[in-house]
Amino acid sequence: MDMGEKKKPSILVVEDDAEMCETLSDILSDKGYEVKTAGRGEEGLALARKEKKKFPICLLDLKLPDITGVEVLKGLKALNPDTYAIIITAFASKETVIEAFKVGAYCYIEKTLNMEELFAAIEHASAEHQLLEDKRRAEEELRRSEEEYCSLMESTEDSVYMVSRDCRYLFISDKHLSRLGLSIDEVRGRGYDESHSEEETKEFAEKVEEVFETGKSVQYEHRSRRDGRYFLRTLSPVKDSEGRATAVTVISKDITELKRREEEVEKSRKFLASIIDNIPDTVSIRDSQFRYVLVNQAYCNISRHTKEEVIGKTAYGEKEKEVFQTGKELYIPERTYTDLEGKRHYVSVKKAPIADESGEVTHVVTISRDITKYKQADKERERLLKELKAKNAEMERFTFTVSHDLRSPLVTIQGFAGMLRKDLGRDEKEKVEDDLKYIENGATKMEHLLNDTLELSRIGRVVNPPEDVPFGELVQEALEGTSAKIKSSGVEVSVAEDLPAVHMDRMRIAEVLVNLIENSINYMGEQSHPKIDIGYRIDDGESVFFVRDNGIGIEPSQHEKVFGLFYHVERNKGTGAGLATVKRIIEVHGGRVWIESERGKGCSVCFTLLNSIENGEMIK
Known about the structure:
single chain; 620 residues; alpha+beta; Beta-Lactamase; 5 domains; 5-stranded parallel β-sheet; 5-stranded antiparallel β-sheet; 18 helices; 46% helix; rod-shaped
């Protein structure tokens, strides 16, 4: 049977013709009816008494071997007044049929039976029985609903009442009476306005009117002026059979405690949000659909979006997917990103699962910490360590160079002192004069070496106050200091125009230029048209100053070595401390110095300058 099809009623067949009983039973059973048969009247009544369903439909022969069909019908009606009896007989008189209808027969069909007529009668009887059953169930359901409704209204903790369109009370529960502090007689039939303020009445009347107009329920929060408590009111229409609203039922639930808890939760939420917003790290939370449900202010500051623009947006991430799948934290020690201003940042990222009570991961929280300053500190530490190693190496070279270069004049002095003693013993005056000359030259050389060494050591410790100076003025001072040497060497010097201004130790930078000019003259070689150019260029936004000559040049392999103390490209060209002094002065000014040259193609000494003078001390 189809689950949507209602079960057909049971049928009692009381017929003394055994063959007909069997035929009817088979046919009706095939059509889905439950059939019981009896060949005698008392037997039929016995079956009806035994069966709880009392057989809603009975096919009854009026002529039976023990009692009449009318007697059976009376007995069936006594058991079930709603029995639908279909009389089937060939021998009943007109009077008997009329008597049967008086007792309550449903219809009459003569033998020999017309099966279509019989089945139509049974179907009609079955349909009427079903309607009757549905009506009874509906009435029972209505009665039970009314009882449950009344019981509910009196047992619920909520206030329940019913009002008309003009807001007069039609019904009111004991709970609501108690809350109002009134008796039923003081309220019944009276208006809502008699127990509430004008403002409350106006609000309530508007809601009642809305329910009548729309035919739909309305729900809103209301705060009582009487005691300040909060209520959630639900107004529902009471409709007639045509669906029109005839009254309004009001269920008023006290939500004061709930509101208090909501306020506490809201305070806690705001407090927690304030804490999260004041965390310098970026914090974001995404759900299982990768939608943002929370971001803090640091996240908004970096992304340049408001919380409203971010919350609810989807951003799929493989790392988040991994956390959802494994339920384990994920730590990324270092990632990089470039902000909207083009600055590169380093961050460490932690992604952690948030699980519900069952242990299922529902959200993933991501915390990103900017570690740029730590990375910069690490890089600065590495730079300082590298510089320290370079300084240590430079110190070792310095110590070796000083000891080596100072030993040379000492050896000369010691050697000729011995020869002087011998020459004095032999009274060879000419040789004595030569010995004294060599000793004097050695002492003089040692004095120059010591003076250069002391001068180099003072650079960076003893400084003059920094000042703003046009670089062109420094060049002119250097040219004046080397004018005699320039004139005697026949070198042509050209100076660029519009040289920029610098802010630094004027005397030291002039000293740099003097050293570079003298160095160019010393290593000009046999150039027929010696020339020195002094100028500057811009490389990647940085001013690069240079002193360029067309002298003998320097092999690329020697570019770094020339800045070493006492280094000589050629002997008998000074002490070799000039470029070492230049390098030291430039570096304490925060700049760099390097060589651009090839052997036989002249030389350019280039340097940069950085304003790094604070509180009267040079710092790097």
